């Protein structure tokens, strides 16, 4: 089985964005040593249209993921700026019940049985894993399918905002894998789900 990894950016107090989901207050931290790490270690998680801006070479190989899953609200942010395939370097799946037809040949829509579809993707034979991109709603629905968390924590406190998981309370145990601290105060932690 390959893993479903929720690779996500958040504030110190665990919010993935402001109450509307906007995380733009953190963008200035995506620089220097941390940006070089992202480009080297997780290049496929950089949106395709940002590759030239951030200096990623065309054809840079995926390191961790060959498949990405997004909720419709997250995908909509790309559509709003005319981007129909934000992560063209992977197979893209978008969960939606409202969009009838995919706007891009690389993007497959999931309207029914989200958990079943994710389980089928996890059962595929591939050396690379599946990136759960977010947002909060879809992460809440898939919380018990998540095998790994990779949390990029920016040194900001929001006080309120969009939670990492839009779901009800339940304590779930994870084992700490790695912790990496960057010179600008960003922290990247990985955890594996204890089953
Ligand atoms: N900090 C980060 O790293 C990060 C990463 C990603 C996203 N975000 C933020 O997250 C925000 C969006 O999060 P969100 O919670 O509002 O929305 P979301 O999870 O991105 O999308 C929710 C939508 O996905 C569809 N959906 C959810 N469950 C479904 C199911 N079981 N079957 C079919 N479709 C399903 C529905 O779309 P329909 O209404 O079309 O049916 C639902 O309205 C954005 O503002 C974005 O900036 C932050």
From TrEMBL:
It comes from the Bacteria. Residues 2-188 form the Bacterial bifunctional deaminase-reductase C-terminal domain. GO terms for molecular function: 5-amino-6-(5-phosphoribosylamino)uracil reductase activity. It holds the Pfam family RibD_C. GO terms for biological process: riboflavin biosynthetic process. Coiled coil: none annotated. InterPro entries: DHFR-like_dom_sf, RibDG_C, Riboflavin_Biosynth_HTPR. This is Deaminase.
